[in-house]
Amino acid sequence: MSKDLPQQNPSEEVDLGQLFKLIGNAFDRFFKFIGSILNSLFLAFVWIVFFLKKHFIKFIIAGIVGVALGILLEKTSEPVYKSYITVKQNYNTGENLYNAISYYNDLVEQQDISTLESVLGVEQDALSSIDKIEIESTLSENQKIQAYDAYIKTLDSTVASTIDYESFLKNDKDYNHRYQQITIKAKERNSFSAVFNNIIENINSNPYFKREQEKDIKALNEQALAINRSLIKSDTLLNVYQKAIIKAAENNNNSQARITIDNKDTGSSTKEFELYSKDLELREKLVEIERNIADKQHIIEITSSKQDSGSIDNSKELLGKSMGLKSYYALILLTLTFLVLMGLEFIKFLGRYKDKI
């Protein structure tokens, strides 16, 4: 009877046992690998702590020297004056504006003041002291998030799901933003209002943008004219309804009187309200058009101006962050001290490692 029962294959038991053993070894090696990484990170952290403790006095001295150097340079170095304006682009002038600023800045760096004078139409006395001309978007981080949200809403849900915030920022160009800030840095305190005005005028006088401006203003004026004609007809028809209501009330002495328009019986009060609502809608549209016409009068315009004569700017930029001279040089010397000490420790390590070979 027992001979009829299926016999279990010994090779299957061996294969299954080996499989579990391999899986167990894989997990064991994985956890040991993770543990070794965590252990190495902990040892590196401990080493950094003792390294900083060992050279703490040296870092303090480097920081003090950096602050002292910053104070000394603030007192002795030639001051830099900064003046800036904020402009609003009513057309897609961003790329053109950025290219123009880059060209002006190249002329400044090359000290080609005569060419800069002919381009900007400003006397050399006001240009010779200029050290740099810059432009950047005034969009804040919150405004960028709002722009991303507004952009996503314009897309199909399938396409929108493939675009994240980082991708949006990567493909978004600063010059596309409506508000831009133009900055002039100079070695002398001068009035740069003429320079700013001529930079803007060069964009406003661009033939392409002027043609676009003429077409837009013409189209808006035609829309305003059509709306005004509609308003006149609407007012006339509204007067007809009002007279009809008054006449019907006089004849029938009934506030619920009805009149016949286009062979259809409709409530006159309803028709009057519809006309009034349409009239209000048209007037709101007309106000919007007039506002657009006012905006289109300037291709690009100055919205605010700060320190036309320039204010002292002693800041330095490090990794995109602006900071004072004291903080800047203190951080620079601390970083250099750290790198030098780390280099010396690495050389010592190589020396000990060489002796073990």
From TrEMBL:
Alphabetized UniProt keyword annotations: Membrane, Transmembrane, Transmembrane helix
Keyword Membrane: yes
Organism this protein belongs to: Hwangdonia seohaensis
Membrane-spanning ranges: 30-50, 56-73, 328-347
Protein name: Polysaccharide chain length determinant N-terminal domain-containing protein
Domain of life the protein comes from: Bacteria
